[in-house]
Amino acid sequence: MHLEKCKDVLRSGTLFRDLNEIYLDLVLMICEEVTYPADGNIFRQGDPGDALYIVASGAVDIILEPQKADDQPLVIASLEQYDTFGETILVEEGHRTATARCRVPSTLLRVPRERMVQLTNDYPEIGFRIMRSMAAGLTQKLSTANVNLRTRVS
């Protein structure tokens, strides 16, 4: 993917949209382009969290794996172009709480945790803007999850 297209993906997503051009260029320098086939796992529930992702093209499902052998996996989110996922690793190191699987062939921008943390340490303004955007996005995801749970229960 061309660098300008990668920058457009960053700019179009919620996490980086508040960044100016210089800050976007700095984030772009640490991004990696990755591709996955349909049904390809990006990561599995329980894997160490080492990066966040932005969907450049394609579609990704976030799936809770069953705890019992006879239970079915549960799709808790369906993500499309410009959606970001795995961003909580910026706040706390840990393991993935769900599986991320491509519904169709997909191209993603991968932002490694270590490099993003270093960038935000070097440029606190980037960190502040990203954390503000991340808090708003996580609030929206929680609200959506609550609505989905309520409709399943009733």
Q: What's the average pLDDT?
A: 91
Shape: globular
Count the helices. How many?
A: 4
Report the CATH C-level class.
Mainly Beta
Q: Approximately how much beta-strand content do the residues carry?
A: 25-35%
How would you sum up this structure, described in words?
By secondary structure, the chain is α+β, with helices and mostly antiparallel strands. The protein has a single domain (3-114, 129-146), classed as Jelly Rolls (Sandwich), CATH 2.60.120.10. Helices cover 39% and strands 25% of the residues. The protein is built from four helices and eight strands, in the order ααββββββββαα. The chain has a four-stranded antiparallel β-sheet with strand order 1-8-3-6. It has a four-stranded antiparallel β-sheet with strand order 2-7-4-5, with no helix packed on it. α1 crosses α2 and α3 (113-122) crosses α4. The chain is globular. The termini are far apart.
Provide the fold topology.
Blueprint: H1 3-12, H2 21-30, E1 32-36, E2 41-43, E3 51-57, E4 60-64, E5 74-79, E6 84-85, E7 99-102, E8 106-112, H3 113-122, H4 124-153
Antiparallel strand pairs: 1-8, 2-7, 3-6, 3-8, 4-5, 4-7
Helix pairs in contact: 1-2, 3-4
